From TrEMBL:
Residues 1-33 are annotated as: Disordered. It comes from the Eukaryota. Gene3D superfamilies: Formin, FH2 domain. InterPro entries: FH2_Formin, FH2_Formin_sf. This is FH2 domain-containing protein. Residues 30-195 form the FH2 domain. It comes from Electrophorus electricus (Electric eel).
Length: 195
């Protein structure tokens, strides 16, 4: 009979080696031309269903790695022009620029009368017109809706505050209007328009 109490424990085996890296893609856009100078814009897109691509010759089916590259030339310069992000600052509207210049010397922050979600949605809505909010309110007051169209005016109706918000926040404001953001100023001016 052999006693196992005097034997050392079996050696611990080292973990298995990591798996090998994935093979490099056969066709990359970097080999088709010089590296991009600008970062591309993010696009929201849906992937193409596999059954629409498999068995057909296309850029998406992997024919870039073959000798048939001339069938689907990719113009990287045009892609860069169309979808590249610009490095320069965006030009601001005159109304925003004047307001920012006025309180560039003061460290005070802007005042917000609307909740953040409504303010963001209204800001996006107003930016599409590329005109000052006072001009939009003047058009509403005069009943000139041709510039905006029925669809945009319907969209504006969905963004209007409820009666409680009008009485508690907007009509109760008696501070400096220069401190308001564009969406807040727009709503304040809009509720002052007589019905």
């Amino acid at each position: 009979v052999i006693s196992t109490s005097n034997l050392p424990p079996p050696p611990i085996l080292p973990p298995p080696p990591p798996p090998p890296p994935l093979p490099a893609p056969t066709a990359t856009l970097s080999r088709l031309g010089p590296a991009r100078r600008h970062r591309l814009r993010n696009l929201n897109w849906e992937s193409i269903p596999k059954e629409r691509v498999v068995g057909r010759r296309s850029v998406w089916s992997g024919s870039l790695g073959s000798d048939d590259d001339d069938d689907f030339p990719i113009d990287l310069r045009s892609l860069d022009e169309l979808f590249g992000q610009k490095d320069a600052c965006k030009p601001e509207r005159a109304d925003s620029l004047k307001r920012s210049l006025r309180h560039s010397g003061s460290p005070q922050e802007s005042v917000s009368l609307l909740d953040s979600k409504r303010s963001m949605n209204l800001g996006i809505f107003l930016r599409q017109f590329k005109i000052a909010v006072r001009e939009i309110v003047a058009d509403v007051q005069m009943g000139c809706g041709e510039r905006y169209g029925a669809e945009k005016l319907t969209e504006l109706c969905k963004l209007l505050p409820d009666s409680e918000e009008v009485t508690s926040r907007l009509k109760g404001f008696n501070g400096e209007r220069i401190m308001l953001g564009e969406p807040d100023l727009f709503m304040l001016l809009l509720v002052e328009v007589p019905k």
